[in-house]
Design goal:
By secondary structure, the chain is mostly helical. It is built from 15 helices and seven strands. Helix 1 packs across helix 15, helix 8 packs across helix 9 and helix 10 runs antiparallel to helix 15. The longest helix has 29 residues.
Length: 339
């Protein structure tokens, strides 16, 4: 049996008030500010994935750790318990009971043998240990994912969305960044469980589309360059297209830009080796989702079967981000959670 939390730090999740934000109002606001929304969402994801990749140089290994940690936090929530940031990272170990490789494989849609290999590599690195049907993270393993930098990134993202919503009577005053950070630190396992419930499916959708997350990151850097130039055109009133959520990706991919991004820049930004970047670029070109210019720069190309999947994923992602933001705003503004 695991001993999930020290009785001295055990806390009960506060009662939630009945009033909640209407997610459709949050979604409508994001629709109205769609170019700015994707600019901030894309920038957040780029920064987060760069930090995640730096941890192990292996996205699959990182997702396995996310999945296992999420299960631990879910177990706390099921018992109506939570831990602050410091309380969680002060634990000497974290025990996740009744976890098997088949379950991880099925939920992440990653082959069982890949999961086995990643778990073994984590064990060889003295990050976790397998004890029967349980997996135990030691102190080193627990601290591997301490997200101080990500809390900063996520707080910035949330405050930007708060600023977009502040003009609406139903939302009220905008949130302060320091207020958000204090809230996350105090109710860490509650907020980070919700964040992982957004992030893990988001990553798996892209892994399924691009076969691996390194390819997705390479493509994503091309997207962000395209997006940035489209936003600048919008800011200069040069964007005449009617940009809506249901056709956003297609409009962006069709938007003509002056300069693309080269392989060396992608490697520098993502920290993925240049040789790997070039290999991924060749695969993306074979899928007809990017093109190479005479300047040896890469831009989006709105063709190929994968683009249809990407367009659908864009809408799914928008819905998921809306659910996440609505929950976070409810936690902070409409609940008995107090800083």
């Amino acid at each position: 049996m695991s001993d999930p939390i020290d009785i001295k730090t055990k806390k009960i999740i506060p009662r939630i008030k009945t009033e909640k934000f209407d997610r459709s109002l949050v979604l409508e606001n994001l629709h109205q500010n769609i170019v700015l929304h994707y600019d901030t969402w894309g920038s957040f994801q780029q920064s987060w994935t760069n930090k995640a990749y730096k941890t192990f140089k292996d996205f699959d290994k990182y997702i396995v750790m996310m999945f296992l940690t999420r299960n631990y936090w879910q177990n706390l929530a099921d018992k109506f318990n939570y831990l602050s940031l410091d309380e969680f990272y002060d634990l000497e170990n974290v025990v996740i009971d009744k976890i098997n490789l088949i379950r991880i494989s099925n939920e992440l849609n990653i082959p069982k043998e890949t999961i086995r290999r990643k778990v073994n590599e984590l064990q060889d690195s003295d990050i976790l240990a397998r004890e029967g049907k349980s997996i135990v993270f030691n102190k080193k393993g627990v601290n591997y994912q301490r997200p101080d930098a990500t809390i900063e990134l996520l707080s910035t993202f949330i405050v930007k969305k708060s600023n977009l919503l502040q003009g609406n009577a139903w939302f009220g005053e905008p949130l302060d960044k320091e207020e958000i950070k204090k809230f996350i630190n105090k109710y860490f396992t509650i907020v980070w469980l919700r964040f992982f419930k957004l992030q893990i499916p988001f990553l798996i959708r892209h892994r399924n589309t691009f076969q691996d997350l390194e390819t997705w990151v390479v493509w994503g850097n091309i997207v962000l360059n395209h997006q940035d130039q489209m936003r600048k055109a919008r800011d200069k009133d040069l964007l005449s297209e009617n940009i809506k959520t249901d056709n956003y990706y297609n409009n962006m991919a069709n938007f003509k830009i002056a300069r693309g991004i080269n392989a060396s820049s992608i490697a520098d930004i993502s920290q993925i080796p240049r040789a790997t970047v070039i290999r991924k670029l060749k695969w993306l070109m074979r899928q007809d989702v990017i093109k190479k210019t005479k300047n040896l720069e890469y831009q989006l190309k709105n063709s190929g079967k994968i683009n249809k999947i990407i367009s659908k994923n864009t809408i799914i992602n928008q819905e998921a981000v809306t659910d996440f933001l609505t929950d976070i705003f409810d936690y902070i503004k409409n609940s008995n959670f107090k800083i």
